[in-house]
Structure formats: structure tokens, C-alpha cells
Design brief:
With about 280 residues, this protein is an alpha+beta fold. Helices cover about 50% and strands about 15% of the residues. The chain has two domains: about 5-165, Regulatory protein AraC (Jelly Rolls, Sandwich); about 175-275, Homeodomain-like (Arc Repressor Mutant, subunit A, Orthogonal Bundle), CATH 1.10.10.60. Strands 1, 2, 3, 4, 5, 6 and 7 form a seven-stranded antiparallel β-sheet that branches. β2 and β3 form a beta hairpin. α1 (about 90-110) packs across α3, α6 (about 195-200) crosses α7 (about 205-215) and α8 packs across α11 (about 270-275).
Length: about 280
């Protein structure tokens, strides 16, 4: 695909008796938003009606035509394999979902199955993509990519596509769940943190969270937080001219006495002595 790696547009597909089969170097999704018609591959003719979703992978010969007397209002989506760079976690998942759909399109046919709720979600997403591409307001390419990600997740989770999409993305593990907590704590350790809040971040029950967090980190939540807070306090004592009580508060400790107690037990000296050592 020359130019954009992701492109969408709305189209009124009229009857086309003499149109030749054609192919692209990119993948094409076609959603029938209104009306009816037919989609054709080299060896198949498929009836098309409102709510149908089709996929023609790169290099697959195809054509489409609307019915006489109204045709078909559709949304066309062109996408190539480079639209998701597979560098970030989200892009890697999206690329895997797209590959699963393309594999289905090559091996099992152009029409993609959808449940009734899935069809409703896809209808909303596809119409929004057509509107974004038509209006081209600032940021529309970002909006198209976000909508494409939403579309892929819809296909991943729909009961009608689960049979071939379920292996596209690895299931969430407890390791992933605790990594989410670690990332949260790296940013928010200075704030008041409760076990219940972190259990919610992980998507675990409070009782299960204790055991899983200890297994994954080797520490209780309290000890893990203390490590982060003492590390920040040491940095501030070395690099800043704050008073000891200001360091304690800026590191996430709620009282000066508790700060002295934890600092002494973990570092082996008082905050003042640590600062004096340079």
C-alpha cells in the first residue's frame, strides 16, 4: 500500500456487471452498512446484506456489486501488516489479532462470522471510521488507528470468532497482573496505598492478591512499598536540600517517627547520618 498503512472510506456500491476481479497488496475489510449485494472471489459468490463483514487478504482476487435499485452502502477499510509495529504491547497484540483474521480469510472464506452483539459493535465502529476518514479532522489518523484496535478487540472477544481468534493473544497471567501493580506503584508510591486498591489494579480478590504478590515479588505489599519509599528518600537526601521531615513526606511516609524507624532498620543509620556521609 503506497501512502497510509490504514485507510477507510464509505462507498455506495452500485451493480457492476462487467467489473473484473482484482487484488491488492494490502488487506481489505468491507462492511455492508445498508442495502444488499454480492461479494465474489475466484471460486465463490457470496450474498451480502446489511450487517455482513468481509475480509479479502492481500493478493486474493475479489470484487463486489450492489443490488439493482439501491445498491449497497458500505465502509471499506484498507490495512497492511505494518499498520501495527509490534513494538509496544498494544501494537503487538493488535498485529497478532490481524494475522489471525487474515489467516481465517485465506483458509476459510471471505465472510467473517459475528454474533448479534458483535455485529452491533462492528456497525458502530465501522460507521465511525467512515466518518473520521470523510471529515479528516485534526488527529483523524490517530482516531482511525484507535478504532481499528477497538475493532480487532471486538473480533477477538466475540463468541462467533472465538474458535479461531482465542490463540491470537496470550491469556493474562498472574505475572502480568502483578506487573500492572508494579507499574502503578512505581508512579504512585508516594501516595496512600491500600491492599484493596492494589487488588483492584491486579483484578484479583483481596485474599488472593496477598499470596500472588508475595510469590511474584518476594515481598509483601508493605515491604515492597517501603523499599520504593526508602530508595526515594535516599535519593532526596543525596541530591536535595530538603529538611528531614520534608524528605519523609515527599517519599510517602505519613509520619516522621515511622520514617526514622523504617529508614534505620533498612539503611542502618539515621537519615541525618546518611546525608552526612554524602
Amino acid at each position: 500500500m503506497a501512502g497510509p498503512q490504514l485507510h477507510a472510506f464509505s462507498i455506495v456500491m452500485a451493480p457492476r456487471k462487467h467489473q473484473m476481479l482484482h487484488s491488492h497488496e494490502f488487506h481489505e475489510f468491507f462492511y455492508c452498512a445498508e442495502g444488499a449485494g454480492h461479494q465474489y472471489r475466484e471460486t465463490a459468490e457470496l450474498r451480502m446484506q446489511k450487517g455482513d463483514l468481509f475480509l479479502f487478504p492481500a493478493d486474493v482476487m475479489h470484487k463486489g456489486a450492489g443490488d439493482p435499485g439501491g445498491g449497497c452502502l458500505g465502509v471499506v477499510l484498507y490495512i497492511n501488516d505494518r499498520a501495527f509495529a509490534e513494538v509496544s504491547e498494544g501494537d503487538a497484540e493488535a498485529a497478532a489479532m490481524l494475522k489471525a483474521l487474515v489467516r481465517y480469510g485465506r483458509e476459510r472464506g471471505a465472510r467473517l462470522p459475528l454474533s448479534v452483539p458483535g455485529r452491533e459493535r462492528v456497525d458502530t465502529i465501522m460507521r465511525r471510521m467512515g466518518d473520521e476518514a470523510h471529515d479528516r479532522r485534526p488527529g483523524y489518523r490517530c482516531a482511525l488507528k484507535n478504532l481499528m484496535s477497538e475493532f480487532l478487540v471486538t473480533m477477538l472477544r466475540d463468541e462467533a470468532t472465538a474458535s479461531f481468534m482465542h490463540t491470537a493473544v496470550a491469556p493474562v497471567t498472574t505475572h502480568d497482573q502483578i506487573d500492572d501493580v508494579r507499574r502503578y506503584l512505581d508512579v504512585h508510591f508516594r501516595e496512600s496505598i491500600t491492599v484493596g486498591e492494589m487488588a483492584d489494579v491486579a483484578g484479583l480478590s483481596r485474599s488472593h492478591f496477598h499470596a500472588v504478590f508475595k510469590r511474584e515479588t518476594g515481598a509483601t505489599l508493605t515491604n515492597y512499598l517501603q523499599t520504593l519509599r526508602i530508595s526515594e528518600a535516599q535519593r532526596l537526601l543525596r541530591e536535595d536540600s530538603m529538611s528531614i521531615i520534608e524528605v519523609a513526606m515527599a517519599s510517602g511516609f505519613s509520619s516522621l517517627s515511622h520514617f526514622y524507624e523504617v529508614f534505620g532498620s533498612r539503611v542502618g543509620c539515621s537519615p541525618k547520618a546518611y546525608r552526612a556521609r554524602g
